[in-house]
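Blinded run. Sample ID left blank on purpose so nobody reads anything into the name before looking at the predicted structure. Input follows.
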Amino acid sequence: MIGSSRGFLALLPALALASRALASPAAPASIPKPPPAPVIAHVSNDFGTPVTDDYRWMEKPGSKHFAAFMKVQNAYTRKVLAAIPGRQALYEQIKRDANVGTAVFSVTRADNRIFYMGVAPGQNTAHLFVLDKIGGKPRLLIDPMQFSTNHIPQALNYYFVSPNGKYVAFGVSGGGSEQAKLRVLDVATGKLLPIGITRIDGDDTDFPPIAWLPDSKGFIYYRLHKFGPKDPVTDFYQKSRDYLHLLSATDGTGATDKPVFGWKVSPAAPMTFAQDALVVTAPHSSYALGLFTENEELQSIDDIYATKLSDLEAGAPVWHKIAGRNVQMAGFALHGDRLDVITPNGAPRFKVVSYDLAGSSAPKTVVPPSDDVITSLAAGRHALYVGAMHDGMGRIKRVAYGTDTTSSAAMPFQGGLGQILADPDGAGVWFHLAGWTTPSAWYDYAPATGAVTNTNLQTPPKVSFAGILSREVKAVSWDGTMIPVSIIMKKTTKLNGKAPTLLIGYGSYGITITPFFAPTFLPWLDHGGIIAIAHVRGGGWYGDAWHKAGMKATKINTVFDFIAAGQYLVDHHYTSPAHLAGEGGSAGGITIGGAVAWRPDLFAAAIDSHGDTNALRMQFSPNGPPNEIEFGNVLKEPDFHWIYAMDAMAHIRNGVKYPAILAVTGANDPRVEPWEVGKFAARLQAASTSGRLVLLRVSYQSGHGIGSTKDQEVRSMADQDAFLFWQLGVPGFQPK
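Blinded prediction complete.
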């Protein structure tokens, strides 16, 4: 996965364009502009289509010229941003609001204790804590900065607790690289075991790389192959394997560990070059699962195999196939001999099918299709718990084992559903819920009584959204499709077309931006601003069909849906083109890049955050081949033609008045190469005649944003918001 961030419509009258151009904010004259990026002519003929790419030279690995370009551009950007009068005060505001409460996420329950990752006020990185009981004093287990050298920021990428609660296997990476080293901690003593295994990619949500054996004597881990200096860069994420490591092993580096699943391990479970191999276990199951996935995500599973756990522990698994690509698996849960799978087969918003691993009965549908979009599963002791959403708002269903009787939890409010956590040794389920104006909290659903109570695991933040409202509206896209749009604003904001408005969009992998509570939105809202989120096709707001309506050949819908949302905000007087900004990050770079290219008149400014704005060249980066399933293969026809359509770089034209742009990248980004963002910025600087700034911001101690420290995030948000306030004409942010 690249990651995530915050129809043809009539052009505006020429008079409006001209008046906006006259008011275009420019850089202070005292700051000399950096020299333009060198242009080296390059035109290729791809399947009959000429493609001009005069900045292809930036792609050369280790290019000193590109490094020099980034350095001088970033230096200029820093001087320009520092000259914005209200920027420092805005930073202090955002910093204050980022520290009004404790974030609690990635919760695990084991041995009657509660483990969680959290960021408390004043803390800069997520730490790992353990609680003996709710209301007790949390004990710090892991501060990732203890592994830092030279003050390089470190991130806790993942952690997995052994079933007996005695050990934690975890991974830490530095500088946003996401390339973690696996270590194991003794929970009782806080000491590290003599284990250190490198090349362990993944996280504890979409792609868990560690699976403990139920007896806690060892674990299976996912590992990338050893990448050599002469290997093609596109091989980096290929040929993964899963290895068995026993705590009793004398070698803690993994050198003597035996592969049990993955690339060329078992003829019974053949793996393709582009797949990822993952092994999963469950506390009360005598089976282990072997999964082949696409792009390190459990929402795109090609094949599921099973083996007896006893055979796996002996290092001789016997894999047999349970379900294949035709099932289109998008999630699963394992309990005993039962495997429940989310599938869109005959169910555009998904259904749940149950498989008997022992083979004594045929697969059966246990949660039929409905208007609800099924998003997640969790296996409890007595029942399967199903996370779902309706128009983006979370729901919880309970399916009793044995009878498959279904009941529903009464949700405490309408909000976005996060992690659902079933206790394998107890009844009920915990779940995380948040609203646009309602703080995040962890709730406990007790099926015996039907009660839903706040666990108080997360303390309410010391901030009020009493003066804030949210609205759910729908915009008409180019083909008549109604696009959901969430709007957040102060109750006192007038709909006079003058409010500085930030429209955010993503639209890939079926990912949904469900409601979340963000105190750091307050500085924007306090300055009279509006924040809107466009739930465009390519995302998952309405399930699998919504996703597929914005991927590959239909990807351009994502861009046009975003444009439709922006036009809605203008037509309904929330804002106007002179006060409207757009933002897209990661795969959302396709969204914002395309919107800027197709409708430059609709936006005064835009943020391209680590964005895939050069989709034609993504294929040739390390993270290119894993993303073929979502975007296609540019080396194949007709894939090339739809990738060409979604490539923002290919549609930038000379002599056009483009919006102001702040392009953001991290030097260590493992998902979207910095040269994608750099090329986009260079092309716009050369092409635009609006007089508006195109800036390139480079962070040299971060990557894609995953693992960034709180202060890095706050500083980046302050830079972005101050830049937008300046460009959207907000008083107090206009340089003299």
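Unblinding after everyone has recorded impressions. The chain has a mean pLDDT of 94.
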